[in-house]
Amino acid sequence: MKLQGASNARDLGGYVNQHGQKIKVHRLIRANSLSHLTKADQTKLVKTYHVATDVDLRTTTEQKQSPDVHMAGVKLVKANVFKSFGAFPDFSKKGAGAKMMEKSYHDAVTTAQGRKAYKSLFHQLLINPKGKAVLWHCSAGKDRAGMGTALVLSALKFDKKAIAQDYLKSNTYLAQTNKENLQKMEAGWKAQGKEVTPIVVENFKAQNAVKMAYLNTMYKAIDAKYGNMDNFLHKGLGLSNTQLKQLQANYLTSAK
User: Fold this and answer.
1) Helix 212-226 and helix 160-173: axis angle, to 10°?
2) Distance between CA 225 and CA 232 in Å, rounded?
3) Whether this model's pTM surpasses 0.85
4) In sequence order, which residues have a C-beta less than 8 Å from that of residue 190 and are 6 or more positions away?
């Protein structure tokens, strides 16, 4: 989606699941931060994409620091996947960035806080008016929003390969933002008199990227605790078979 104030926003419409069913356009949208949306962006989201609900998956601190732009007629739902972020690990140590990311993917689906947030997202999808869109987002639109999308696509009968294709697109859409972030980080480290070593850069890139190792950490955590994704949707998120069928009927076209 071409928005001036959000670089990692996309409509899941048109994705085809393993039964040949397509997601209806302008119904399911994932994004990054909505705090810099222009007036034109807001009009596009409301008028063209029919956004009726904005589910903010960020922490309360992030929400206070960069509040979402209020869009007329759009309901804002705060669903914090994490209460807060812990202290950053030491980025001068090899593998620290990737370890931090993998822990967050594990925690998002194994903690009561994370499951409550994703339950809230599914609740909004279930009560969403016909013909309207639900948008969910975090800060970069890649991790908390990426996991939420993986869960939604799983509920809509998409396989892991299709889910991975969508998930990895964040690396492309965020390439410019990540380049700028890396420059800021390097300047910040130098200003503190710290050395920007190749390991520091590698850790920073690991934090700003999406990697299959991260998504696989989520899948492994789900399998370890619930056995499989279906059990997680039922027991972890409390979705009944009727509700899953309702989601599929609401957001998918009929199979050919």
Assistant:
1) 140
2) 8
3) yes
4) 196
